[in-house]
Amino acid sequence: MEIKVTDEIKKEDEDIVYKGLLEYNSARIEDKNPKDLGVYLQDETGKTVAGLIGHTHGNWVFIKYLWVSEELRRCNIGSNILNQAEQTAKERGCKYSFLDTFSFQAPEFYKKHGYKEVFVLENFPVTGSRYYFTKTL
């Protein structure tokens, strides 16, 4: 056998590792029904101008991305989208929320919305910080 190191990951190699991990995890995890969660704000032309991407799984909602276009920031749109995502998560049976954000993004925004800092990855990727938050819904 031989260990191979590469900086170019091929799709088929990623699929092999993912499928192996998924097979192992699926046999052991209690809730096998993760569900995508998208919340979007669209303008009158149908263009998405703000949105949230995440998923719910068991007791948790995982917020992957929350974005508001530059011209609409500070108009409570991010707050409204986050609140809608949390409400939908509660309707799906979630009790907790998890997300991460960089120091230049929105740690204070999430604290304002009741999120508690559980971990900070300092010097990431070089001089910044990456914050990890949870919230009881």
TrEMBL record:
GO terms, molecular function: acyltransferase activity, transferring groups other than amino-acyl groups
Domain of life: Bacteria
Organism: Ruminiclostridium papyrosolvens DSM 2782
Matching CDD domains: NAT_SF
Protein name in the entry: GCN5-related N-acetyltransferase
Lineage, opening ranks: Bacteria, Bacillati, Bacillota, Clostridia, Eubacteriales
All residue ranges annotated as the N-acetyltransferase domain in the record: 1-137
